[in-house]
Specification:
Blueprint (H helix, E strand, L loop, with lengths): L1 H41 L1 H4 L8 H14 L9 E6 L6 E6 L1 E7 L2 E7 L9
Antiparallel strand pairs: 1-2, 3-4
Length: 122
């Protein structure tokens, strides 16, 4: 009886560690993408007059490339770019919307993330 308890306890511990690892990795990747999105949306070079303003498609592609660096697969439809004040003084608000599956043995559940350049979402 003691052996069964030890085996079951070990299995529960392994499943919990696996789920925790997957959730933690997804949250860290999301936090890194959030920082990258804020950097992309800030367009520091544009406001200093060093860089030409980017188009909405350029911003969307940049977000998708940064997401790929963090192991997140995004399609253009999952990235929303809103431009305020057109021209050289424009401001971008960028949001990505994606789901990461967490697989724990025989059970799977989705984690939904929406990283954004908007600081109000913190």
């Amino acid at each position: 009886m003691r052996t069964i308890t030890i085996i079951l306890g070990t299995l529960v511990l392994i499943v919990a560690a696996s789920a925790g690892w997957q959730i933690g990795a997804a949250k860290i990747a999301n936090m890194n993408l959030q920082e990258d999105i804020r950097d992309i949306a800030s367009q520091a070079g544009t406001h200093l007059g060093v860089v030409v303003p980017k188009s909405d498609d350029d911003v969307s592609r940049a977000v998708i490339l940064k997401a790929k660096e963090h192991g997140i697969n995004l399609s253009p439809g999952q990235v929303t770019v809103r431009r305020m004040n057109p021209g050289e003084a424009s401001t971008f608000y960028v949001t990505a919307d994606y789901t990461v599956p967490v697989n724990v043995g025989f059970y799977s559940f989705p984690l939904h993330f929406t990283p954004s350049s908007d600081k109000a979402g913190i």
